[in-house]
Amino acid sequence: MENITYTEAEKHKIFNEELIPHLASMYNFAFRLTLNEDDANDLVQDTYLKAFRFIDSFEKGTNAKAWLFRILKNSFINDFRRKSKQPSKVDYQEVETYYNSEEFEPEIEATTDLRNETVQELIGDEVANAINSLDVDFRIAIILCDIEGFTYEEMAKILDIPIGTVRSRLHRARGLLREKLTGYAKKLGYLQKS
Amino acid sequence: MNSQEIIPKSQPCTCCCIETLYTILDNENVVEITPQLVNKIEKCLPCYEEHNLEKSIKELLQSRLQKISPPQVLLDTIRAKIELINRLVQ
């Protein structure tokens, strides 16, 4: 899309009417990425300042939420995580290549133990712990699809990856989440330990 | 459901694939969902269980994960910083 030149009044109108309404979703997304309220605050501020600065590249009336999520995700990956003092993460591409390779055999036993009834027993803290413990790229896939309700096409745009990769990443993410939930269920005695 | 048509859980399912289940679960159109396909899934225990479990987990994520309200000061700070940038630019 070619940039549009908005007047100052138009910029503020778009900002207030189309971007600000997504503040709560953005804050929750940022919190699920950074796992820290102060860092989430900084990340959301940074995202909205960038959004305002580059508002001419946003076509009013289009998908503002997806546009903002894309900026936030990029800020987190490119700037925020690099600056943070967290230990370096495993290279995601390596993880994805491994999970997509024939070497990878999912832990069928762990995943088939989980049942509908067991899932109902789990409380918010266990669910939050399970999702927070996933590698950030898998966590993002689950958040975008299952919590925020983005379509695969929107996810592909937010993540800058083909739709096929969205589907395979989501598949792996769901498998891993299920393993984590199974682990919690076993720990809490909802499932028999093998 | 006719029990003779149920595939035992230990056997791998060959009637459909994960993409079909995700198509239904995520309301996507990756594969065409025909009445025949829906009928097959309903009669296949592994697929039926897989679909129900994924659906439960998705519902669990939507209902049990606490939504955190952003602090009011966050919006005020964003507005103040934008005003400051505008003033500096002018």
Task: Explain what this protein looks like in three dimensions.
The complex is a heterodimer of chains A (194) and B (90). Chain A folds into two domains: 8-83, RNA polymerase sigma factor, region 2, helix turn helix motif (Rna Polymerase Sigma Factor, Chain: A, Orthogonal Bundle), CATH 1.10.1740.10; 92-187, Arc Repressor Mutant, subunit A (Orthogonal Bundle). The longest helix of chain A is centred in the last third of the chain and has 25 residues, at 163-187. Chain A has helices at residues 8-19, 23-34, 37-53, 64-83, 92-100, 108-112, 116-121, 124-132, 136-147, 152-159, 163-187. Chain A is mostly helical and 194 residues long. Helices cover 70% and strands 0% of the residues of chain A. In chain A, helix 2 crosses helix 3. Chain B has 90 residues and is mainly alpha-helical. Chain B has one domain. Helix content of chain B is 61%, strand content 0%. Chain B contains four helices and no strands. Chain B has helices at residues 18-25, 35-43, 45-64, 72-89. The longest helix of chain B is centred in the middle third of the chain and has 20 residues, at 45-64. Chain B is elongated. The interface between A and B is large, with 42 and 33 residues.
